[in-house]
Amino acid sequence: xxxxxxxxxxxxxxxxxxxxxxxxxxxxxxxxxxxxxxxxxxxxxxxxxxxxxxxxxxxxxxxxxxxxxxxxxxxxxxxxxxxxxxxxxxxxxxxxxxxxxxxxxxxxxxxxxxxxxxxxxxxxxxxxxxxxxxxxxxxxxxxxxxxxxxxxxxxxxxxxxxxxxxxxxxxxxxxxxxxxxxxxxxxxxxxxxxxxxxxxxxxxxxxxxxxxxxxxxxxxxxxxxxxxxxxxxxxxxxxxxxxxxxxxxxxxxxxxxxxxxxxx
Length: 264
Description:
The structure is a single chain. By secondary structure, the protein is mostly helical. The chain has two domains: 1-71 and 83-88, Serine Threonine Protein Phosphatase 5, Tetratricopeptide repeat, CATH 1.25.40; 144-264, Tetratricopeptide repeat domain (Serine Threonine Protein Phosphatase 5, Tetratricopeptide repeat, Alpha Horseshoe), CATH 1.25.40. Helix content is 62%, strand content 2%. The chain has helices spanning 2-11, 17-29, 33-45, 53-65, 69-81, 89-101, 105-116, 124-136, 140-152, 160-171, 176-188, 230-241, 246-258; strands at 196-198, 205-207. Strands 1-2 form a two-stranded antiparallel ribbon. Helix 5 (69-81) packs antiparallel against helix 6, helix 9 (140-152) packs antiparallel against helix 10 (160-171) and helix 11 (176-188) packs antiparallel against helix 12 (230-241).
Protein backbone atom coordinates (compact mmCIF):
# COMPACT_ATOMS: atom_id res chain seq x y z
CA UNK A 1 0.00 0.00 0.00
CA UNK A 2 2.88 2.38 0.80
CA UNK A 3 4.39 1.64 -2.62
CA UNK A 4 1.09 2.55 -4.28
CA UNK A 5 0.88 5.81 -2.32
CA UNK A 6 4.44 6.66 -3.31
CA UNK A 7 3.61 5.96 -6.96
CA UNK A 8 0.55 8.21 -6.71
CA UNK A 9 2.70 10.98 -5.23
CA UNK A 10 5.20 10.77 -8.09
CA UNK A 11 2.40 10.50 -10.68
CA UNK A 12 1.09 13.90 -9.59
CA UNK A 13 4.30 15.49 -10.90
CA UNK A 14 4.89 15.17 -14.64
CA UNK A 15 8.69 15.05 -14.27
CA UNK A 16 8.39 12.05 -11.94
CA UNK A 17 6.27 9.71 -14.09
CA UNK A 18 9.15 7.24 -14.52
CA UNK A 19 9.43 6.90 -10.75
CA UNK A 20 5.66 6.59 -10.49
CA UNK A 21 5.71 3.62 -12.87
CA UNK A 22 8.53 2.03 -10.85
CA UNK A 23 6.54 2.12 -7.61
CA UNK A 24 3.24 1.20 -9.22
CA UNK A 25 4.92 -1.91 -10.66
CA UNK A 26 6.24 -2.93 -7.26
CA UNK A 27 2.76 -2.64 -5.75
CA UNK A 28 1.03 -4.18 -8.78
CA UNK A 29 3.23 -7.28 -8.71
CA UNK A 30 2.06 -7.82 -5.14
CA UNK A 31 -1.53 -7.78 -6.35
CA UNK A 32 -2.54 -4.19 -5.55
CA UNK A 33 -5.55 -3.56 -7.82
CA UNK A 34 -5.24 0.22 -7.64
CA UNK A 35 -1.62 0.07 -8.78
CA UNK A 36 -2.53 -2.32 -11.59
CA UNK A 37 -5.21 0.12 -12.70
CA UNK A 38 -2.72 3.00 -12.61
CA UNK A 39 -0.27 1.03 -14.77
CA UNK A 40 -3.06 0.57 -17.30
CA UNK A 41 -3.38 4.35 -17.46
CA UNK A 42 0.39 4.95 -17.60
CA UNK A 43 0.92 2.46 -20.44
CA UNK A 44 -2.25 3.56 -22.20
CA UNK A 45 -1.16 7.21 -22.26
CA UNK A 46 2.61 6.72 -22.51
CA UNK A 47 3.32 8.39 -19.17
CA UNK A 48 6.74 7.38 -17.82
CA UNK A 49 6.84 4.44 -20.23
CA UNK A 50 6.51 3.86 -23.96
CA UNK A 51 2.85 3.84 -24.96
CA UNK A 52 1.70 0.23 -25.17
CA UNK A 53 -2.02 -0.58 -25.34
CA UNK A 54 -1.44 -4.34 -25.09
CA UNK A 55 0.47 -3.99 -21.80
CA UNK A 56 -2.09 -1.47 -20.62
CA UNK A 57 -4.89 -3.99 -21.10
CA UNK A 58 -2.89 -6.77 -19.41
CA UNK A 59 -2.59 -4.70 -16.25
CA UNK A 60 -6.17 -3.55 -16.64
CA UNK A 61 -7.41 -7.13 -16.73
CA UNK A 62 -5.52 -8.02 -13.55
CA UNK A 63 -7.26 -5.19 -11.69
CA UNK A 64 -10.62 -5.95 -13.32
CA UNK A 65 -10.44 -9.58 -12.22
CA UNK A 66 -10.06 -8.33 -8.64
CA UNK A 67 -13.32 -6.42 -8.99
CA UNK A 68 -11.86 -2.94 -9.55
CA UNK A 69 -14.77 -1.13 -11.24
CA UNK A 70 -12.74 1.47 -13.13
CA UNK A 71 -10.60 -1.27 -14.67
CA UNK A 72 -13.66 -3.35 -15.52
CA UNK A 73 -14.96 -0.31 -17.40
CA UNK A 74 -11.62 0.30 -19.13
CA UNK A 75 -11.38 -3.37 -20.13
CA UNK A 76 -14.91 -3.25 -21.50
CA UNK A 77 -13.96 -0.16 -23.48
CA UNK A 78 -10.89 -1.95 -24.82
CA UNK A 79 -12.97 -4.90 -26.03
CA UNK A 80 -15.64 -2.62 -27.49
CA UNK A 81 -13.07 -0.73 -29.56
CA UNK A 82 -10.33 -3.32 -30.14
CA UNK A 83 -7.82 -1.27 -28.18
CA UNK A 84 -5.03 -3.48 -26.81
CA UNK A 85 -7.24 -6.56 -27.18
CA UNK A 86 -9.16 -8.17 -30.02
CA UNK A 87 -12.51 -6.46 -30.55
CA UNK A 88 -15.27 -8.46 -28.89
CA UNK A 89 -18.63 -6.85 -28.09
CA UNK A 90 -19.75 -9.78 -25.93
CA UNK A 91 -16.66 -9.42 -23.72
CA UNK A 92 -17.26 -5.66 -23.64
CA UNK A 93 -20.80 -6.20 -22.36
CA UNK A 94 -19.62 -8.72 -19.76
CA UNK A 95 -17.06 -6.33 -18.27
CA UNK A 96 -19.30 -3.29 -18.54
CA UNK A 97 -22.02 -5.18 -16.67
CA UNK A 98 -19.63 -6.01 -13.83
CA UNK A 99 -18.66 -2.34 -13.55
CA UNK A 100 -22.29 -1.21 -13.91
CA UNK A 101 -23.33 -3.48 -11.04
CA UNK A 102 -20.91 -1.49 -8.87
CA UNK A 103 -22.55 1.74 -9.99
CA UNK A 104 -20.03 2.86 -12.63
CA UNK A 105 -21.99 5.47 -14.59
CA UNK A 106 -19.76 5.30 -17.68
CA UNK A 107 -20.29 1.55 -17.94
CA UNK A 108 -24.05 2.00 -17.57
CA UNK A 109 -24.04 4.61 -20.33
CA UNK A 110 -21.99 2.43 -22.68
CA UNK A 111 -24.23 -0.56 -22.07
CA UNK A 112 -27.15 1.62 -23.06
CA UNK A 113 -25.31 2.51 -26.27
CA UNK A 114 -24.50 -1.12 -27.10
CA UNK A 115 -28.08 -2.26 -26.55
CA UNK A 116 -29.55 0.76 -28.34
CA UNK A 117 -27.55 0.19 -31.50
CA UNK A 118 -27.90 -3.59 -31.54
CA UNK A 119 -24.14 -4.15 -31.31
CA UNK A 120 -24.91 -7.22 -29.21
CA UNK A 121 -28.71 -7.38 -29.27
CA UNK A 122 -31.23 -4.60 -29.72
CA UNK A 123 -33.05 -4.16 -26.42
CA UNK A 124 -34.98 -0.92 -25.86
CA UNK A 125 -35.84 -1.77 -22.26
CA UNK A 126 -32.20 -2.30 -21.30
CA UNK A 127 -31.16 0.78 -23.30
CA UNK A 128 -33.50 3.05 -21.35
CA UNK A 129 -32.72 1.34 -18.05
CA UNK A 130 -28.96 1.72 -18.32
CA UNK A 131 -29.13 5.30 -19.59
CA UNK A 132 -31.47 6.16 -16.71
CA UNK A 133 -29.14 4.62 -14.11
CA UNK A 134 -26.23 6.70 -15.40
CA UNK A 135 -28.36 9.83 -15.88
CA UNK A 136 -29.62 9.68 -12.30
CA UNK A 137 -25.98 9.63 -11.18
CA UNK A 138 -25.49 12.89 -13.05
CA UNK A 139 -23.54 11.69 -16.10
CA UNK A 140 -24.11 14.39 -18.72
CA UNK A 141 -23.77 12.05 -21.72
CA UNK A 142 -26.40 9.69 -20.33
CA UNK A 143 -28.74 12.56 -19.48
CA UNK A 144 -28.43 13.75 -23.07
CA UNK A 145 -29.00 10.25 -24.48
CA UNK A 146 -32.07 9.78 -22.31
CA UNK A 147 -33.32 13.14 -23.49
CA UNK A 148 -32.95 12.00 -27.10
CA UNK A 149 -34.93 8.81 -26.45
CA UNK A 150 -37.72 10.81 -24.81
CA UNK A 151 -37.61 13.39 -27.57
CA UNK A 152 -38.07 10.90 -30.39
CA UNK A 153 -40.12 8.24 -28.60
CA UNK A 154 -37.59 5.42 -28.79
CA UNK A 155 -38.04 2.83 -26.04
CA UNK A 156 -40.29 5.25 -24.14
CA UNK A 157 -43.41 7.24 -25.08
CA UNK A 158 -42.46 10.41 -26.91
CA UNK A 159 -42.38 13.26 -24.41
CA UNK A 160 -40.59 16.51 -25.21
CA UNK A 161 -41.26 17.87 -21.72
CA UNK A 162 -39.29 14.98 -20.22
CA UNK A 163 -36.67 15.32 -22.96
CA UNK A 164 -36.15 18.97 -22.04
CA UNK A 165 -35.70 18.05 -18.38
CA UNK A 166 -32.82 15.72 -19.21
CA UNK A 167 -31.33 18.02 -21.83
CA UNK A 168 -31.35 20.89 -19.35
CA UNK A 169 -29.58 18.86 -16.66
CA UNK A 170 -26.95 17.82 -19.21
CA UNK A 171 -26.61 21.29 -20.74
CA UNK A 172 -26.11 22.91 -17.34
CA UNK A 173 -23.05 20.68 -16.94
CA UNK A 174 -21.69 22.19 -20.16
CA UNK A 175 -22.48 19.28 -22.49
CA UNK A 176 -22.51 20.88 -25.96
CA UNK A 177 -24.82 18.35 -27.63
CA UNK A 178 -27.49 18.98 -25.01
CA UNK A 179 -27.08 22.73 -25.35
CA UNK A 180 -27.56 22.38 -29.10
CA UNK A 181 -30.60 20.13 -28.60
CA UNK A 182 -32.22 22.75 -26.36
CA UNK A 183 -31.48 25.32 -29.03
CA UNK A 184 -33.26 23.11 -31.56
CA UNK A 185 -36.32 22.68 -29.36
CA UNK A 186 -36.64 26.42 -28.69
CA UNK A 187 -35.92 27.18 -32.35
CA UNK A 188 -37.79 24.41 -34.18
CA UNK A 189 -39.83 22.56 -31.56
CA UNK A 190 -38.09 19.25 -32.31
CA UNK A 191 -34.71 17.48 -32.33
CA UNK A 192 -32.75 15.44 -34.85
CA UNK A 193 -29.62 14.09 -33.19
CA UNK A 194 -27.83 10.85 -32.32
CA UNK A 195 -26.64 9.61 -28.94
CA UNK A 196 -23.12 9.51 -27.59
CA UNK A 197 -20.75 6.92 -26.24
CA UNK A 198 -18.89 7.45 -22.96
CA UNK A 199 -15.13 7.20 -23.60
CA UNK A 200 -12.56 5.76 -21.25
CA UNK A 201 -12.79 8.19 -18.32
CA UNK A 202 -11.44 11.13 -20.32
CA UNK A 203 -14.49 13.13 -21.26
CA UNK A 204 -14.52 12.43 -24.97
CA UNK A 205 -17.57 11.02 -26.71
CA UNK A 206 -18.43 9.50 -30.05
CA UNK A 207 -21.56 9.87 -32.19
CA UNK A 208 -23.67 6.79 -32.50
CA UNK A 209 -24.49 5.64 -36.02
CA UNK A 210 -27.36 7.14 -37.96
CA UNK A 211 -29.97 9.81 -37.43
CA UNK A 212 -33.15 9.35 -35.48
CA UNK A 213 -36.44 9.70 -37.35
CA UNK A 214 -39.63 11.18 -35.94
CA UNK A 215 -42.05 8.72 -34.40
CA UNK A 216 -45.64 8.45 -35.60
CA UNK A 217 -46.85 7.63 -32.09
CA UNK A 218 -48.71 10.43 -30.31
CA UNK A 219 -49.27 10.96 -26.60
CA UNK A 220 -50.51 13.98 -24.60
CA UNK A 221 -47.02 15.36 -23.97
CA UNK A 222 -45.62 14.66 -27.44
CA UNK A 223 -45.90 18.20 -28.71
CA UNK A 224 -46.09 19.93 -25.34
CA UNK A 225 -43.16 22.24 -25.94
CA UNK A 226 -42.57 25.82 -24.85
CA UNK A 227 -43.41 28.60 -27.25
CA UNK A 228 -40.83 28.98 -29.98
CA UNK A 229 -38.29 31.32 -28.41
CA UNK A 230 -35.52 32.52 -30.77
CA UNK A 231 -33.72 34.42 -28.01
CA UNK A 232 -33.54 31.34 -25.78
CA UNK A 233 -32.58 29.20 -28.78
CA UNK A 234 -29.67 31.49 -29.65
CA UNK A 235 -28.53 31.46 -26.01
CA UNK A 236 -28.14 27.68 -26.10
CA UNK A 237 -26.65 27.71 -29.60
CA UNK A 238 -24.09 30.25 -28.39
CA UNK A 239 -23.06 28.11 -25.42
CA UNK A 240 -22.58 25.09 -27.68
CA UNK A 241 -20.78 27.18 -30.32
CA UNK A 242 -18.34 28.49 -27.71
CA UNK A 243 -17.23 24.87 -27.26
CA UNK A 244 -16.61 24.50 -30.99
CA UNK A 245 -19.80 22.60 -31.83
CA UNK A 246 -20.00 23.14 -35.60
CA UNK A 247 -23.78 22.84 -36.06
CA UNK A 248 -24.34 25.40 -33.31
CA UNK A 249 -21.78 27.75 -34.86
CA UNK A 250 -23.73 27.59 -38.12
CA UNK A 251 -27.09 28.26 -36.42
CA UNK A 252 -25.60 31.14 -34.44
CA UNK A 253 -24.09 32.69 -37.58
CA UNK A 254 -27.45 32.32 -39.34
CA UNK A 255 -29.18 34.04 -36.43
CA UNK A 256 -26.82 37.00 -36.63
CA UNK A 257 -27.16 37.18 -40.41
CA UNK A 258 -30.97 37.20 -40.30
CA UNK A 259 -31.34 39.06 -37.02
CA UNK A 260 -33.20 36.16 -35.40
CA UNK A 261 -32.99 35.98 -31.61
CA UNK A 262 -30.00 38.31 -31.47
CA UNK A 263 -29.32 42.03 -31.47
CA UNK A 264 -27.60 43.03 -34.69
